[in-house]
């Protein structure tokens, strides 16, 4: 064999070895392919993978977090469109994801939580909490109680801007009678927190709290009894009216709440202590005189209020 032949043979073997090396999958590429195939075989589990869009617990994921925030903004914007509300309010996987963001408010991104709150506030009138126990596919273990607890957590959070959204959400959610069984077990905590919000100077906070209390007071006599028994409730509702909230509808609803409270016989003894304040508003503010006239009538015309007819409104001491 000539030297040239040996050289050509060596080159051929070298090229063949490199060709096989290039075609053979490396360990890293095999692992990557395996992960890809795994994801393809289980498309419903991508949300929980290491690179899932809303997996924000680990450090060093700034880009993923930015993507999640941008996605939440898009979803929030969708919720403002009437055409999208029904679809979004009936999509269990979507609602589970939004409520999970809210549930993780103490560790999650603040803007992400804010966008999630604004989204569910828009959808609240159409939202039926029973969807979390329906036959629709579930990807996150979240039930009706967890959803309400997530909102209660927001009401007690340190971010004041969230309190208004949470109060507004509860007020809209109770409109659907099917949601009552899930909200009423939390009624005492809800009333207490909403009454606390009435004491804050922020007018939007007061408006959200009054709106929620108005809807809750319309649910049942039991709700009215619990609200009337809440310390400072009547006093702070009166202060909202006396301070002339810039939105007249807020004052009107506050007066109507007081009117509904006095309709319960069990509440009259509690409310009678404010008789003088009611009379003052009756004679000084014509806008709500009808409401307070009816309130005073309820207080003074019932058999259990014989003594009240002789004092307070007429200025007669007893």
From TrEMBL:
<dbReference type="GO" id="GO:0035060">
    <property type="term" value="C:brahma complex"/>
</dbReference>
<dbReference type="InterPro" id="IPR021906">
    <property type="entry name" value="BAF250/Osa"/>
</dbReference>
<dbReference type="GO" id="GO:0045893">
    <property type="term" value="P:positive regulation of DNA-templated transcription"/>
</dbReference>
<dbReference type="GO" id="GO:0005654">
    <property type="term" value="C:nucleoplasm"/>
</dbReference>
<protein>
    <recommendedName>
        <fullName>ARM repeat superfamily protein</fullName>
    </recommendedName>
</protein>
<dbReference type="GO" id="GO:0031491">
    <property type="term" value="F:nucleosome binding"/>
</dbReference>
<dbReference type="GO" id="GO:0016514">
    <property type="term" value="C:SWI/SNF complex"/>
</dbReference>
<dbReference type="GO" id="GO:0006338">
    <property type="term" value="P:chromatin remodeling"/>
</dbReference>
<dbReference type="InterPro" id="IPR011989">
    <property type="entry name" value="ARM-like"/>
</dbReference>
<dbReference type="GO" id="GO:0006357">
    <property type="term" value="P:regulation of transcription by RNA polymerase II"/>
</dbReference>
<dbReference type="InterPro" id="IPR016024">
    <property type="entry name" value="ARM-type_fold"/>
</dbReference>
């Amino acid at each position: 064999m000539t030297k040239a032949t040996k050289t050509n043979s060596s080159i051929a073997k070298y090229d063949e070895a490199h060709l096989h090396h290039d075609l053979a999958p490396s360990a890293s590429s095999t692992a990557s392919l395996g992960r890809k195939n795994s994801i393809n075989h289980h498309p419903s589990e991508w949300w929980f993978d290491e690179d899932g869009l809303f997996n924000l617990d680990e450090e060093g994921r700034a880009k993923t977090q930015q993507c999640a925030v941008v996605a939440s903004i898009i979803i929030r914007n969708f919720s403002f469109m009437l055409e999208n509300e029904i679809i979004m309010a009936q999509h269990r996987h979507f609602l589970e994801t939004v409520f999970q963001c809210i549930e993780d408010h103490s560790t999650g991104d603040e803007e992400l939580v804010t966008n999630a709150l604004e989204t569910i506030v828009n959808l609240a009138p159409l939202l039926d909490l029973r969807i979390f126990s329906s036959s629709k596919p579930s990807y996150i273990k979240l039930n009706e109680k967890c959803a309400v607890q997530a909102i209660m957590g927001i009401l007690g959070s340190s971010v004041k801007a969230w309190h208004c959204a949470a109060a507004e959400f509860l007020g809209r959610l109770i409109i659907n009678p099917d949601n009552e069984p899930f909200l009423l077990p939390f009624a005492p905590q809800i009333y207490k927190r909403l009454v606390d919000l009435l004491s804050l100077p922020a007018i939007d906070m007061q408006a959200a709290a009054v709106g929620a209390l108005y809807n809750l007071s319309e649910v049942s006599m039991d709700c009215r009894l619990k609200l009337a028994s809440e310390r400072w409730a009547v006093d702070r509702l009166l202060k909202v009216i006396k301070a002339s909230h810039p939105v007249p509808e807020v004052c009107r609803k506050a007066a109507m709440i007081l009117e509904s409270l006095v309709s319960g016989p069990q509440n009259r003894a509690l409310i009678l202590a404010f008789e003088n304040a009611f009379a003052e508003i009756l004679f000084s503010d014509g806008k709500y005189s009808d409401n307070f006239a009816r309130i005073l009538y309820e207080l003074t015309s019932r058999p259990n209020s014989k003594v009240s007819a002789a004092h307070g409104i007429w200025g007669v001491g007893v």
